[in-house]
Amino acid sequence: MVETRLTRELETRELTGRPKQWQPASALPEPDKEPGYDYRWVRISSRAQNDPQNISSKLREGWEPVRIEEQPQFKMMVDPNSRFKDNVEVGGLLLCKIPSEFMDQRRKHYNDMNRVQIESVDNNFMRENDPRMPPFRERKSSASFGKGK
Length: 149
What we know:
The protein is an alpha+beta fold. Helices cover 32% and strands 15% of the residues.
């Protein structure tokens, strides 16, 4: 009894898997997330003009460029003329990562700043408020239809 290779080829995963559907290409591919890190695409150039101020500030903030070895699915996206040769760059954007705890601290910092500013505006508004002439007064209105009996 001779087995043919055809029967084995018909048992592939592609034939039993879900049919693929077309979808538009995303402008920026999503990296595989490493636990404990947040990812972001950081601008390094715009309209063929380098943006050293932006990348410098992000690096000082704690962002570090992702090496191509960490995200091998982006190997074809490496720009041979880039300043960041061993990193992932797409259209003037560099893939960077930062420890999640840094992002939590950053969120807390900006939330605190926002809360202080809101309190300041509220306090300033309340200081100028006079209870005899409130700038905002709840207004009630009613509408009735037809004749009441």
